[in-house]
Amino acid sequence: MGRSPCCEKEAGLKKGPWTPEEDQKLLAFIEQHGHGCWRSLPAKAGLRRCGKSCRLRWTNYLRPDIKRGKFTLQEEQTIIQLHALLGNRWSAIATHLPKRTDNEIKNYWNTHLKKRLAKMGIDPVTHKPRADAGGAGAAASGARYRAAAHLSHTAQWESARLEAEARLAREAKLRALASPPAPAASGLESPTSTLSFSESALFAGAGHDDALGAARAPAVLTPRSYGEAFGEQHSFGDDADAPGGFLAGVLLDCAVAGAEQRFAAASADASVSEQQQEEDKGYWSSILNMVNSSMSSSSSSLTSEAVTDPAMYLPAAAEF
DNA sequence: AAGGAGATCAACCGCCGTATT
DNA sequence: AAATACGGCGGTTGATCTCCT
């Protein structure tokens, strides 16, 4: 019954930090043969490590398509938004951040973003104002809860989509299993992602013309329109030029549509008062300010990318 | 210059869902 | 159908770095 014993039960396997020599061995082996079965890889590559350790080292550090260094403003914004939608689902969040690993995102959240939100009196877990955060007022709290409710609603759809993506990604991986990985210089997209992020411009705010038209999702997504947008915008693995996925489309939509459009839509919904909209605006604006404030302390070519539009973070009002 | 505190991040641990036998 | 391995994920740890006194 079952398979043969796991390599991890073997004694004498090395743990702890990887040496440059080990990195070189692992890298050379994978570039030549692909990783194949992680369990058997260490022996073949001449490493005294368990397969799990090798896989971790590869996915979090050695993979050629990993971007290291400071997170950009756009990446920070995306992480905050996605965390509000998805919670601690780091791998799902990493799917939407080109060339960043889930481990790196998780670390960045825990060491930077979480603290900043907490400082603002926002619970980094729920993205709701903390009960002990003074000054907000009951009305503003209500607005924030509505915003959170919206996010929760959106998250349901996003979760379903991610599950579908995961299924398709598995199928794609199975198809690709026989072929070795691309060489280091190939500029791979994230292998954990079924989406393409070739368009770094999508996040950098440049080159919108082409990506925008395709990626922009309707401002208000009913389940039906979600399905349509979903179907139109994804080609799951085969199409490296896909426009970046549903959520990226929504983000883009938010970024470019601007406050006027968003507030006009909100005004059409009689159940949402102007005051509530202002409160929502204030809440998301505070997140935005928090994110932007990080720019002044970071060296950066990002200054021109500062987002000044609070509506970027506003949920589509008609969804309330 | 020394040492203590806090921040950072690579790596490990344990669990879970899926695949395999 | 059951048992087991495998791969992936999120939480946590601990070594190292940086800053402050």
Automatic annotation (TrEMBL):
It is found in: Nucleus. Keywords: DNA-binding, Nucleus, Repeat, Transcription, Transcription regulation. Gene3D superfamilies: Homeodomain-like (1.10.10.60). Residues 10-62, 63-117 form the HTH myb-type domain. GO terms for biological process: regulation of lignin biosynthetic process; response to other organism. One of its GO terms (cellular component) is nucleus. This is Myb-related protein Zm38-like. The lineage of its organism: Eukaryota, Viridiplantae, Streptophyta, Embryophyta, Tracheophyta.
